[in-house]
From TrEMBL:
Pfam families to which the protein is assigned, alphabetical: Glycos_transf_2
InterPro entries cross-referenced by the UniProt entry: Glyco_trans_2-like, Nucleotide-diphossugar_trans
UniProt KW keywords: Transferase
Superkingdom of the source species: Bacteria
Organism annotation: Caldicellulosiruptor owensensis
Protein name per the record: Glycosyltransferase
Residue ranges of every copy of the Glycosyltransferase 2-like domain listed in the record: 8-53
Amino acid sequence: MDKSTVCAIVVTYNRKELLLECLDALLRQTRPLQGIYLIDNASTDGTPELLLEKGYITELPPKELNEPWEKEFAIQNLTDG
């Protein structure tokens, strides 16, 4: 039996509707998901707020990512929880 899993990295910028389609497709695929990592390249179209509203993320990222440790927040495992 094949026990391989999938891990996806999705990069987005101001394409929230397309992003939702992409995330939904990833969640519907047949291989087990190890994780989905999302990198939002400072979208200004409400992408983070929509992801929060739809339950894909649990908190909004900081507005300013100035400290090195904060940059890790930009990549969030969407399959946690």
